[in-house]
């Protein structure tokens, strides 16, 4: 048995209980997620299921004809489906071979593996094998949120979920992101986990980092934009490696060009605005939004911040700075810019809130009680999503609506492309 193999074996053995504990917590969390038909089927899970259905039964690339979509869409030519759907492809392959129910199970298993991987990378980078530490990190990630629920309870801003209290500005909790947009948040969380462990990454794996980042274009381009500020220090430290002439770098460049051409074939029918030009009372809205969403929770993170390393402080302040800037742009029917770009920053802040609780517990500081009260108020926002899922719980593998059934509104029109684009004329011709 080689030395490296023995080291890996004993590391896994020593962390076995911690890993089992985290795996169990993660599994319970996902049981309410609606992923793969398990848990309350929110609206987004319906359209996600439709995408998985079309990828499972239709030939790739997926096209929609005017006859299929109907007169209400007003199409005169066939439209390709242009969406960042890497998340669905493994389950869709299973569905093509074994059927719809198998595709749902595969999607759940794939999502569980990705979520557990991200949480494992985070937990073991922060607390090693302490069960209490892992529990603090897990709870902080699950229930981290803004004061949306408290504000909505006091002022009745919306009858919908509290997180939509100031439309079109949205910073959703990790709970909501996982339950409504797993295709976006899971890859972003994994990347954050990798960055937190970057000092320990095998040099060979570090070389393919460029390919991993480029691949995010087909996973979640908006989350990729949210991740870029956190990758900048890493790329600066390794710029010679990533600009060198090598097979890996050439492959990353080719992949980048292909994926950009694919995404660019979207017809970009969604709106995009500078919010400062849209709202006459922008600064009032903006300051209120920032205050409610994360300023109240910052005292927990900033308390004795000297405990954190220089890299960790860089992560924290980059996340805060990103969250301050994001609301200036509105993109998409539901402002996907704010919802998706903020995901990495929200995840990072939740991690370090959890780490602060670990430090407060160890030091037996009275600040623990104040921090606990603030976190409890913030956790009500995520708890609302969990409770709603639990009270409307179901497990169903019924066939989803077809894409056309959602109508020309909402996000269907945002996910269709141009058949005469370069990508579909030369790289992926219709059959």
TrEMBL record:
The chain crosses the membrane at residues 20-39, 81-99, 105-124, 131-158, 178-196, 208-236, 242-265, 286-303, 315-334, 341-361, 367-388. Signal peptide: none annotated. Keywords: Membrane, Transmembrane, Transmembrane helix. This is Membrane protein 6-pyruvoyl-tetrahydropterin synthase-related domain-containing protein. It comes from Dyadobacter chenhuakuii.
């Amino acid at each position: 048995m080689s030395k490296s193999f023995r080291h890996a074996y004993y590391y896994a053995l020593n962390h076995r209980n911690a890993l089992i504990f985290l795996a169990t917590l993660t599994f319970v969390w996902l049981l309410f997620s609606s992923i793969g038909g398990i848990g309350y089927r929110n609206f987004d899970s319906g359209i996600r299921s439709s995408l998985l259905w079309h990828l499972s039964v239709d030939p790739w690339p997926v096209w929609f004809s005017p006859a299929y979509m109907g007169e209400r869409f007003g199409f005169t030519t066939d439209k390709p489906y242009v969406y960042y759907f890497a998340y669905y492809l493994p389950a869709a392959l299973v569905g093509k071979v074994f059927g719809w129910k198998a595709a749902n199970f595969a999607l759940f298993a794939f999502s569980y593996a990705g979520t557990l991987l991200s949480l494992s990378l985070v937990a073991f980078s922060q607390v090693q094998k302490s069960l209490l530490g892992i529990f603090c990190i897990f709870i902080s990630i699950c229930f981290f949120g803004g004061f949306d629920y408290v504000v909505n309870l006091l002022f009745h801003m919306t009858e919908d979920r509290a997180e939509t209290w100031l439309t079109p500005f949205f910073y959703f909790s990790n709970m909501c992101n996982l339950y409504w947009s797993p295709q976006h948040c899971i890859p972003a969380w994994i990347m954050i986990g990798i960055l937190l462990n970057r000092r320990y990454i095998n040099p060979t794996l570090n070389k393919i980092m460029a390919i991993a980042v480029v691949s995010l274009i087909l996973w979640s381009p908006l989350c990729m934009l949210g991740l870029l500020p956190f990758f900048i220090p890493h790329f600066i430290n390794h710029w010679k490696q990533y600009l060198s002439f090598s097979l890996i770098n050439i492959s990353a460049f080719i992949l980048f060009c292909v994926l950009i051409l694919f995404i660019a074939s979207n017809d970009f029918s969604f709106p995009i605005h500078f919010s400062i030009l849209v709202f006459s009372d922008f600064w009032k809205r903006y300051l209120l939004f920032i205050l409610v969403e994360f300023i109240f929770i910052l005292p927990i993170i900033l308390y004795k911040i000297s405990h954190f390393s220089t890299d960790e402080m860089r992560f924290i302040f980059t996340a805060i700075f990103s969250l301050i800037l994001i609301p200036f742009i509105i993109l998409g029917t539901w402002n996907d810019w704010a919802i998706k770009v903020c995901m990495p920053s929200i995840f990072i802040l939740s991690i370090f809130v959890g780490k602060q609780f670990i430090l407060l517990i160890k030091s037996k500081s009275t600040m623990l009680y104040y921090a606990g009260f603030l976190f409890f108020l913030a956790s009500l926002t995520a708890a609302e999503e969990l409770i709603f899922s639990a009270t409307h719980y179901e497990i169903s593998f019924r066939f989803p609506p077809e894409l056309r059934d959602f109508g020309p509104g909402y996000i269907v029109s945002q996910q269709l492309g141009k058949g005469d684009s370069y990508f579909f004329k030369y790289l992926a011709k219709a059959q």
